[in-house]
Amino acid sequence: MSASGSSRAAATASDERLLRVGVAGYGYWGPNLARNAAQNIRIELVTIADLHPARLSAARRAYPAARLTADVHELLADPTIDAVFIATPPDTHCALVLEALGRGKHVLVEKPLATDVGDAERMVAAARAAGRILAVDHTYLFTSAVQKMKQYFDSGEMGDVYYYDSTRINLGIFQSNINVIWDLAPHDISMMLYLLDRPVETVSALGARHIDLEHENIAYMTLKLAGGALAHFHMNWLAPTKIRRTIIGASRKMLVYDDIEPVEKLKVYDCGAQLITDVEDLYGRLVEYRTGDVLAPRLDNTEALAVEVEHFVDVVGGRAEAISDGALGARVVRIIEAAQRSLGNGGVPERVPQ
Questions:
Q1: How do residues 135-176 score in pLDDT, each as one tens digit?
Q2: CA proximity to 164, closest of 203, 127, 128, 208
Q3: Which domains, and CATH codes, for the chain?
Q4: What is the residue-wise DSSP string for 205-229?
């Protein structure tokens, strides 16, 4: 028996029934979801669905024991499947998620949850009514770097947050049905909401179209958060280099998260500034800077998607609260939809509904 086979036998023997999973969509992200489902000892990968014969052939070579179908509705109708991982284009999410929930399935759906706030809210309501888990695949929340940053914020070590600055640029991949904001911003918005845990009040956005005249390939977003903090996101499909960097400034510590850095992805700076006022001198207002140590915490190298899939199994089993649930996914969509309105209005700030 193979190592994975013996592990599955051990998991079955522990009285925990395997979660039977189907994967809908085997294009760009679906293979990653299928791989992590197949490698998880608490999951049985049952079915893979995709419209394209070439993709199904690739799935057959990778997972000969899984059933294959070109009809996603056949997958969703299978009463033996407990949960569905959906990796189809964003404009298909609402119909597929609602059908899956209506058939009693738990759902993990690729980001963004939807391209319309109304659709996102319908999915959240449907999950609540069905008593099923709706999770959104905001993978970065499950990286060890983001989890470590969350510890700093939750412990109060960061102090008051001043700003959140993120750059996510590379050469490609151009999407045919959404612009660069809908493609890249969900990563950074979900991280910001998770780490800072405060509402976004307004958002303004500017962008440009250079290759595809229907969709912006570069955009800048500025968000005003409750409490006065500012956030700025730079997204670009047409950059000569790949950068995935987040800088967070606060009163006690500052963080730099560089996802491209192979070793020290996260650095914690013990630095800051404060205003010193000389009460005897009307003009004696000076900024005093504090520079301390720089710490690069040890991080786990486990693949974030593997951690997320394991977490999903725990949430379905009632052993954990969802980190990235439908409500978070809907908040991300509200912010991006407001940014889209601002984009169409020449960058005028738009209020984000709460």
A1: 999 999 999 999 999 999 999 999 999 999 999 999 978 877
A2: 203
A3: 3-140+306-331 (3.40.50.720), 154-299+333-351 (3.30.360.10)
A4: EEEE-SSSTTS-SEEEEEEEETTS-
- Cα pseudo-dihedral 146, 137, 314, 20, rounded to 10: -150
* Cβ proximity of 219 and 210 under 8 Å: no
Residue 246 forms beta bridges with which residues?
A: 166, 257
The reported pTM is: 0.90
- Chain centre distance of CA 42: 23
**What is the DSSP secondary structure assignment for residue 352, as one 8-state letter?**
P
Token pair, residue 326, equals: 């439908």
The encoded tokens of residue 287 equal: 């900024």
Q: Retrieve residue 310's tokens.
A: 């394991």
How far is 5 from 11, CA to CA, in rounded Å?
A: 10
Token output for 142: 């499950």
Residue 29, classed as helix, strand or coil, is: coil
